[in-house]
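question for whoever is on the cluster today: can someone run the full assembly for these? two chains, 517 residues total. i dont have access anymore since they changed the login thing
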Amino acid sequence: MPEEIKETLIKLNGISVDFNGRSALDNVSFDIFSDQIVTLIGPNGAGKTTLLKIILGIIRPDKGSVWKKDGLKIGYVPQKTNLSRNIPLTVERFLCLEGRRHDRATLRQTLEETGAGNLLFRDVHPLSGGEWQRVMLARTLLKQPDLLVLDEPAQGLDPVGEEQFYALLTRLNQTKHCAILMVSHDLHVVMANTHRVLCLNRHICCSGTPHEIAGSPDYHTLFGKESSLALYHHCHNHTHLPDGSVCHVD
Amino acid sequence: MWTEPFILRGLLAAVIMAALASPIGCLMIWRRMAYFSDSLSHSALAGVLLGLALGIGQNAGVAIVVCLTALLLTQISDRFIIGMDLLLLIIGQTALCAGIIGFSYMPEIRTDLTAYLFGDVLSVTGDDLIFIAGAGSLCLILLLLNWKKMVFATVMSDVAQSEGVCVKKLSAVFMILTALFVALALKTTGLLLISALLVIPPCSARFFAKTPEQMAGLGIIIGVFCVIGGLACSVFTDVPAAPAMEIFCAVFFSVCCLYVKCNKRIM
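^ ran it for u. tokens below:
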């Protein structure tokens, strides 16, 4: 990533959220910079989707603040849509959901950028998982976002489709200069295509370049030592109890 | 015979109702809330009683009670341990029973109970028609102002919210919309048959529509057609009007099902 155009897009400061008295996120702080690909990893129930929803303004944090650059445009591709089959919808109408009209040439061109150029007039219900992800991605690109937020974008894709989809994201990051924040479980891909990794388990366990993370003991505590990454010896500053809470080793 | 004023008034009331039923019904189907109008309409009987007790007229009473019930329903969190569908059923049935018991204390209108349950479109008065047109215009304005946002929020609630759509406000608007519709449809179809007219014409339209707007528009055409057909049946053969309209909708829906099956279009 070129250093000279690094600009802060989002600043999270001490974010905490409780759901029904149970802590979902505890004192999470980090920044997202322009042009950067940031990947959020962590076990189930670690609060990854909650954190995305806080950044998107869908959930209000109990403590802490979210600062966003003035006029920041965020495109959100959610984890799964629970779309009723009773609603008739073509890809064309889906792309215009937010209300702004686009001419067909723009729509087709945007779909082509995500590799879905032939889908414009198709019904959305029979689309495959991969096609659906590309269409959703195209919808967010129409408003030329500065930041793309994706929640497990490769879920339900076969290995080839998954690799192609991540390659597409990398390409969009380079050509459109938009930052990407995504949740992913595909550790091998994460390591290859990401500038920065955040390892979340209700708090941020560790963060850094994929190389640095791979050496972090916290990472191994969360994902197991068999994850295909080199081992380093570090000093633990905390471990996790079975319920995920932090146990400091003093 | 068609030029008799009471038939024209009934026809106009039924057509306004059928035209509004489709877009509201579509939103309800897409949000998986088909039971919602049932519960609301069941509380209408209590509204009739309130209107008579306060002397403000039954239409106003129905509008007030149904809107209040709708706002009460928006307060139910989807995290509550008893599901929304069950709560709707409990509230609806209880409101109906309370209304029927209330009616038994008013001997002067007790005989009208059937008219409230199953409608009496041919007894629509000029005042009723003014109320129906007024409530109908309000529904139309709310629909036109919020339609695109409502479709967006129905397809992807979280994404709509992240792009500045206030989903909570839209839910409240939708509840008010349904409540107004129940109030204006009460005289035409009766509270037990309101849901049928909301749901069946859009379902027929679903087979042929490619976009949400096509489904709502086609639903309006089908609904108006079925309502006129039902009313004609009622005028010429003396069967009750609202059930005849419902049967017309159902027959049309069955024909659509058969047509689609014969054409091997897999939906």
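summary bc i know u wont read the tokens: Chain A touches chain B through 22 residues (CB under 8 Å). The helical segments of chain A are 48-55, 91-95, 104-113, 129-141, 159-175, 187-193, 210-214, 217-223.
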